[in-house]
Design goal:
six-stranded mixed beta sheet; ATP hydrolysis activity; 2 domains; alpha/beta; P-loop_NTPase; single chain; Rossmann fold
Length: 365
């Protein structure tokens, strides 16, 4: 009987692996060697999840998939998620889910084990949670994330997480890192840590040969002359268009709000206290963003840099279109010391934007 089950799982895993190969073929590329190794583990997980009859039987062991930007982690997760034949699954981005979790936690915070109630509210029927772009930088968030993961493990929810960091690289700030070590150790005990570190960065190309999202149809404009803005399909705001937008209990100045387009000055959207929740709320109202007066990040404070990184992550994850009007070439904007820990991912995402640059450097004849 056991032998038959093992043989069945192996056959299922083979079919899952074939679906990854077919998906790659439809998108016009072949899996590289590093991706093939990861596919083997994901195919095994898919076979186990498809045969798992919770709460009976052995719970499938989760996978923590990490590696540099652009190696295909999110694409592999997407194919896996679409392939696994269960309706008790959820795929979420870090920012979106943590925003929802914060809100649910607040609704239950007066109860004992408020985290468990929040998880039950959001994931009542979930047996497989695919958690994309997982990272931990804030010490306050780290403690809540620890309790969240503990609740997920206790509820026998199998996790597939992608990250740019190995577990030991989470919460990298040396002042606070030790606080997250117990959670890191629990992740390593409970999940298989799998590295995807192939030699090629695929972010510079589309998997299918076509733009994957509205984000990729965005534009990086430097230095932002009227002619360049016209080439980008933009018209500079008039002073009369300045408006204050209500975001929760806060207000934020926008240079213009035209239907689904909003135009911000960098320092209005990133230079003052704003949370990821604020940005998420704004993406629900505006699907095209213009951020003007983007400075070299080395010239602004650490909090403004991190907010900019959060904005880029959220806009990309929410499939919004982004126009950046910058003071310098992209490489110069992203150069400097003490930049956000996720600057590699941000640089990779911004490299997807089309570039409208001066024919000659400003100031030259």
């Amino acid at each position: 009987m056991v032998g038959a089950l093992v043989a069945g799982e192996r056959a299922d895993a083979g079919r899952f692996a074939k679906r990854f190969e077919d998906a790659a073929g439809r998108s016009g590329f072949e899996l590289d060697a590093a991706q093939v190794r990861v596919v083997g583990r994901l195919a095994q997980l898919g076979a186990e999840v498809s045969r798992w009859r919770s709460p009976f039987g052995r719970q499938p062991r989760g996978v923590y998939l990490w590696g540099p930007v652009g190696r295909g982690k999110s694409w592999l997760m997407n194919v896996f998620y679409e392939t696994v034949p269960t309706d008790k699954k959820h795929r979420v981005h870090f920012h979106d889910f943590f925003h929802q979790f914060h809100a649910a936690f607040s609704r239950h915070r007066q109860k004992r084990r408020a985290v468990d109630f929040a998880v039950e509210e959001l994931l009542a029927d979930c047996r497989l949670l695919c958690f994309d772009e997982f990272h931990v930088h804030d010490a306050g968030d780290a403690m809540l994330i620890s309790r969240l993961f503990t609740s997920l493990f206790e509820k026998q929810i199998t996790l597939l997480a992608t990250s740019n960091y190995p577990p030991g690289g989470l919460l990298p700030n040396p002042i606070y890192h030790h606080l997250f070590v117990p959670m890191i150790e629990k992740i390593e005990r409970t999940m298989d840590v799998v590295e995807l570190a192939g030699p090629r960065d695929y972010r510079g190309r589309s998997w299918s040969g076509e733009p994957r999202s509205r984000f990729e149809t965005g534009v990086y404009v430097w230095p932002g002359t009227d002619a360049q803005l016209r080439d980008a399909g933009l018209t500079a705001p008039a002073e009369a268009e300045i408006i204050a937008l209500d975001v929760g209990n806060w207000r934020i100045r926008a240079l213009a709000a035209r239907d689904d387009l909003v135009w911000f000055d960098f320092f209005d959207v990133c230079g003052t206290a704003r949370s990821a929740t604020d940005y998420l709320a704004l993406t629900g109202r505006f699907t095209t963003w213009v951020i003007a007066e983007l400075p070299r990040l080395a010239e602004v404070g650490q909090e403004a840099r991190q907010r900019f990184a959060n904005v880029v992550d959220i806009l990309c994850d929410r499939d919004a279109r982004l126009f950046l009007v910058a003071a310098a070439p992209l490489a110069d904007v992203l150069r400097g010391d003490d930049l956000p820990p996720d600057i590699g991912r941000i640089a990779s995402r911004l490299s997807l934007l089309s570039m409208i640059l001066p024919r000659e450097a400003p100031g030259r004849p």
